[in-house]
Design a protein that fits this description.
The complex is a heterodimer of chains A (363) and B (356). Chain A contains twelve helices and twelve strands. Chain A has 363 residues and is α/β, with parallel strands linked by helices. Chain A has an eight-stranded mixed sheet with strand order 6-7-8-3-9-10-12-11, sandwiched between helices. Chain A has a four-stranded antiparallel sheet with strand order 2-1-4-5. In chain A, helix 5 runs parallel beside helix 7 (183-195), helix 6 crosses helix 7 (183-195) and helix 7 packs parallel to helix 8. Chain B has 356 residues and is α/β, with parallel strands linked by helices. In chain B, 29% of the residues lie in helices and 24% in strands. The longest helix of chain B has 18 residues, at 218-235. The radius of gyration of chain B is 21 Å and the shape is globular. Mean pLDDT of chain B is 84; it is low at 81-98. The chains are: A alpha/beta (363), B alpha/beta (356). Chains A and B meet through helix 7, helix 8, helix 9, helix 10 and helix 11 of A and helix 8, helix 9, helix 10, helix 11 and helix 12 of B.
């Protein structure tokens, strides 16, 4: 545990050099979120699902960090802990205050959280379930403004109109209800709601996964444009590696509640250091039939480990192609393998893993 | 080069008659599926790809029904002898050559005996969400052997044996024990494998896979796709794969049908669809997907403007017209583009290619 601690803090400060350290907007330190498993009449706790187990990473001002992994890896839970939608089991979520001080959101109660809820907002995955069907768009987007006493009356209406216009919706439609909009438009409403309070950090949880291909491109472009315009910082949670590659500056790869690799996007995709990342990259279907023969797809055996009952040692070892005896005994720490590139694998230096080269170009 | 035709769909129209109006979910679709080949049907939600597949099996949900068109099933020899096929009248009148018997599936009664003979035996289907398509209150073994017992005269023991063999074949560890498990005890990938085992239990000529990997993770998706390819080599069935993921299409397909709003935009072999797309919709679709290794250097994705129109207010003329960069006023909004043959089995529905 103590080794993990030093490792975590060292990682967060040194990752981008000391100059950038002041620019850290969000720092997650040894974050843990365990869900109890209960049984029997008295709901006795018989175990824990370690959804997020001791993860540390940071997000710089103005950057987009991707949180990627398969279902059940804890990426969504991590995102929700940062929003304090969940209470933390352990660890710290440090957010830079307006005056540059790092504030730990973990122990704050609901009242104390209030000012920070304006600063950290969320875009949800499913644009159908995340909008109240009984509220017109003006209320959906305007309520955060009202609740935080930012604007009322005519001013509120103007702000909502300009927000809608900004995300590519017609302000005239603000009296309509969500059912009148298509999936892509609803996602735009969700984005407008997230941006209503000028947040500093936006957690986008699978924001484009439920959308069609042609609409997905529009929303991704919108997310990018808004970042430039409002100097937003994103934590982009997704399982889709091609989307992550397109939108993120740095990527955090998770597997069964732990971080297995952190690196700049380009580096991670070109030269992964963790076998899981390699397998993940290789599993993404390439939209070019000519690449079919050239690529030897790594097909992982078995399923993702159960976070309630994870394997010993490295959680990935039962599925790893390069497994050795040590892997089932010792849990690997997240170590810096190359500058700014961290991996949790005992053999990261020895292994030569294949990434994705830029040769996948389409004609 | 081409294997014999298995399914020929001609001008298929499946409409849904709702209180709000008629939804022309499938509106004049033509394509063919060849034996032992993989055909991918690709398109966005609402383009009618699933309804087309369901029309083949006559399992379109109420109030939808096939209003026009033919689905000609060229029943391979192997299957012609089994079951009740002798009693099947050939709706075309043309039982055809001695080798194949041709059945028009669209003309069969959706509740009739003939189509039920074909479902699960000649043509079987796997669905997107394996949890909702498996029965939660029957064991895996029960569900697999049901189809076997229905279509063959195997006894209980033999059917169990066969089911174990199938489960082993689709890569489920300890298959004999799994026979007694319920679907909720299995992971998403395992459930999808059970679905595949069930679908293959009677050695079908065509396997329809409706978004089989949409609900599973990438690493599981790779497993399932690999499995489908292996099984196709072993069992020799044709696969009709319905997906919205162009990456999956590129990895799996022999032939591709691109659909948009109930119509075929373009069809052809996978190589030419990806490297020489003709229809503006296909071109735009291919440009709008982020690609691993390529998008890193890209500033913006090319997106298709606007959105898929409301099914009740379909545009006149070409369905893609309002979103198309090559829109020709006065022509594209007046004429519903006919199928234009470009040779090599390629077909495009776009007025840009009228002269060719």
């Amino acid at each position: 545990m103590s080794a993990q601690l030093t490792n975590g803090s060292q990682h967060s400060t040194s990752a981008n050099g000391s100059a950038a350290a002041d620019n850290v907007l969000l720092e997650v330190k040894n974050l843990q979120k365990w869900f109890p498993i209960t049984a029997g009449f008295f709901r006795r706790t018989i175990g824990h699902v370690k959804a997020v187990d001791d993860i540390s990473f940071h997000v710089l001002q103005g950057e987009t960090v991707g949180l990627v992994g398969e279902s059940g890896c804890g990426k969504t839970t991590a995102g929700r802990c940062i929003l304090r939608a969940y209470d933390l089991t352990g660890g710290q979520v440090l957010l830079q205050d307006h005056d540059g001080k790092m504030v730990d959101l973990g122990p704050l109660n609901n009242n104390e959280m209030k000012p920070y809820r304006q600063q950290v907002r969320m875009i949800f995955q499913d644009p159908f379930n995340s909008l109240n069907p009984r509220m017109p768009v003006i209320d959906i987007v305007g309520d955060p403004l009202k609740i935080n006493k930012v604007a009322t009356g005519k001013e509120l209406e103007d702000r909502v109109a300009s927000l809608l216009a900004r995300v590519g919706l017609r302000p005239e439609y603000m009296r309509r209800y969500p059912h009148a909009f298509s999936g892509g438009e609803r996602q735009r409403i969700g984005i407008a709601r997230a941006l209503a309070l000028d947040p500093r950090l936006v957690v986008a949880d699978e924001a484009v996964s439920a959308l069609d291909v042609s609409v997905r491109a529009q929303i991704l472009n919108l997310i990018k444009d808004l970042q430039e315009e409002f100097n937003l910082t994103y934590l982009f949670v997704s399982h889709d590696l091609s989307v992550i590659e397109y939108i993120c500056d740095r990527v955090v790869v998770m597997y069964v509640g732990k971080i297995v690799e952190v690196a700049e996007t380009e580096e991670l995709f070109a030269q992964p250091f963790h076998p899981y990342t390699e397998a993940l990259l290789s599993a993404v279907p390439n939209p070019d039939p000519r690449m079919r023969q050239q690529k030897s797809r790594i097909v992982l055996e078995g399923d993702v480990a159960d976070p309630a009952n994870p394997p010993s040692g490295c959680y990935f070892h039962p599925r790893c192609r390069y497994v050795q005896d040590r892997c089932s005994l010792e849990t690997p720490d997240l170590r810096e393998i190359a500058p700014g590139h961290y991996a949790a694998c005992h053999y990261a230096e020895e292994l030569t893993l294949t990434g994705v080269t830029a040769s996948g170009e389409l004609g | 080069m081409d294997t014999p035709v298995l399914i020929e769909i001609k001008n298929l129209k499946t409409h849904f008659f709702l209180d709000e109006g008629t939804v022309q979910a499938v509106n004049g679709v033509d394509f063919t599926i060849h034996q032992h080949k993989t055909l991918c049907v690709v398109g966005e939600s609402g383009c009618g790809k699933s309804v087309t597949a369901r029309s083949i099996l006559q399992i379109v949900d109420q109030p939808g029904r096939i209003v026009e068109g033919e689905i000609l099933y060229h029943r391979p020899d192997r299957l012609s002898g089994v079951g009740l096929s002798e009693e099947l009248p050939s709706p075309n009148g043309a039982g055809g050559s001695s080798s194949t018997e041709i059945i028009d599936l669209a003309a069969l009664d959706p509740r009739g005996r003939q189509i039920r003979e074909i479902r699960g035996q000649d043509i079987s289907m796997i669905f997107q969400e394996p949890m909702t398509s498996l029965s939660p209150i029957h064991t895996v073994g029960n569900q697999i052997t049901e189809a076997i017992k229905l279509h063959t005269d195997m006894l209980d023991d033999e059917a169990d044996e066969h089911a174990i063999e199938l489960l082993r074949r689709v890569g489920i560890p300890r298959p004999a024990e799994r026979l007694e498990t319920y679907p909720f005890e299995l992971s998403g990938g395992m459930r999808q494998r059970v679905m595949i085992a069930m679908a293959l239990s009677c050695n079908p000529a065509l396997l329809i896979a409706d978004e089989p990997t949409t609900a599973v993770d990438v690493t599981t998706q790779a497993q399932i796709l690999e499995l489908l390819e292996e099984l196709q080599d072993d069992f020799g069935m044709a696969i009709m794969l319905i997906t919205h993921d162009l990456g999956v299409v590129a990895e799996m397909a022999d032939d591709v049908v691109v659909m948009y709003l109930g119509q075929v935009a373009e069809r052809g072999d996978v190589e030419s669809i990806f490297h020489d797309p003709k229809h503006p919709y296909t071109q735009a679709l291919l440009k709008s997907i982020p690609k691993l290794g390529v998008s890193r250097t890209m500033q913006r994705l090319d997106s298709i403007r606007g959105m898929v129109p409301d099914p009740y207010n379909r545009p006149t003329g070409c369905m893609f017209g309002p979103r198309c960069d090559h829109f020709m006023p006065g022509r594209c909004d007046a004429i519903n583009p006919p199928a234009i043959q470009l040779g090599d089995g390629r077909e495009v529905h776009c007025l840009l290619y009228e002269d060719e």
